[in-house]
Amino acid sequence: MERERKYTGIGVSPGVAMAHAYVHRPAAIDPPHRILPDGDAAPEWERLVAAKGVARHQIQQMLDALGLEASGGEGGILEAHLMTLDDEMLIGALRREIFEKHHNAEWAVSDIASDFANRLRSSKNPLLAERAGDITDVARRLLRALMGTQDTISFTFEDRRIVVAENLTPSEALSLPRDRVAGVALDRGGITSHAALLVRALGIPAVFGLGDFSSNVESDAIVAIDGNAGEALISPGENEEAHLNRLAAEREALIRTVRERACEKVATPDGVEVRCMANIEDADGINELLMEGADGVGLFRTEYLWLSEGRPVEEDRQVETYATAAKALVDRRLAIRAFDLGGDKFRGGAGMGKSEDNPFLGTRSIRFLLANKTFFKIQIRAILRASAVAGRAIDFTIPMVSDIGELVQTRHLIEDCADELAKRGTPYVLPRVGIMVEVPSTALCARAFASHCDYFSLGTNDLTQYTLAVDRCNASAAHLYQPLHPSVLSLVRMTVDAAGKASIGVSACGEMAGDPLSALVLLGLGVREFSMAPSAIPLVKETFRRVPAAKAAKVATLLGSASTAKQIRHCARNILAHFAPEILRQC
Known about the structure:
This protein is of the alpha/beta class. It is built from 23 helices and 17 strands. The model is unreliable at about 70 and about 345-355 (pLDDT under 50).
């Protein structure tokens, strides 16, 4: 028997799985290259236009096939592919390649797509890299149409398998036979990839970033993955197999139990009430997230409306989208975040907006909005109008605020927009205005900010990144990205204390909110509202039902000493082990 081999990667979707491997190795596409004779550019362009039509039809067929089963953003991925086909910058570059450089259509598509994708990947940010993957995926469709090769992506297995590959394009991820995929193991990719988004939405265990795993796995070999620990094994031994089977059975029983109670209100054993809300990117699927037990929407990431179209979103469409979400939630909270563009989220056609050397420290979020007030005022008016249409108030959250002047300017713009609507006779409702606390300067000045806004929303991902000067997407520095670092938690406590003194609300909406262990620590620091991926809500709710808030508060006592992230995690694990050991084993 082959000896057990273990690989360590990134757990992107929780759960364990063990099955025969299906190793996916897509065929390479080798585009022909020729220089066009005089007069042949126009016919060559027509070939490309026809190929675009074929690709558009194929994408639309996939979109139609998803229908009501679309979840987790699959439809948005395909819609982004349709937008890419019509992107002005991409089309212009292809025209120049054919008409000015006289290259054939296959070579033009390959060359231009490669250039665009490389420019996006140069940021070293996985979200930009995902848009590079979109362009590459669309280019492959065009090339197959031009070369007359088969478009079908085939996963030819009938029994349940663990799909092993170097990486999966969006189209490949969408083509997975969902009823037969036990798990996914990839050499590349991270928690923000399209493939990760899809497998999490489907509840499929997955580990990415495994290095050379796929090149060492034979098809039909027995492999096992642990999406909690971020590990993958080839030929697991009897002890490991028994351990994984036990974990799988425990997880299945736990998830079944917590889902049965997901829609119940939550209070800790010592009577502290807690709200668990959802993060969303569009108004679709509100009913589904309510079934997961969401107490509202704590973070509506509106920038994805912009990104899916590759251009600014019309005011009426925003009104319809926000009003739809508000009506579906009835009396539950809806907090809409202003367009958070820049940094890891680009703007413009196909993401090819104005580049910056260091976008995370550049014109992003509120800085971009205040520099482009036309776009900002359209969104503000849309929120004011949507509130009136829905007949209820909507919260409006301002991202990346680092200076009180930015908040003051925003409030002036809201007043200006209200005046405009009043003069038109258009009904509107003023929103509550809050800020994302995601840079140290804001947390340090939280008491001053509290007098200018109605609530705080802790963006723990960026707060950790900016406090520790660590790019959370940089694999070489990943071990330094520690959300439970005492400095980060001290800023969280400072923000919570300031909110309490000003009698305003405070919620947490980063990755920490959806992780039972980290959520327990935030509970101990005084956070009472959390917003997370809908699928995380049942387990986090159950954690709060089990652990007394007074016991969770023990973690806060470590912040005054020379503690480390490791010590804080150890303390939190001990608390969870005492009150909910079966939940700890799933963390």
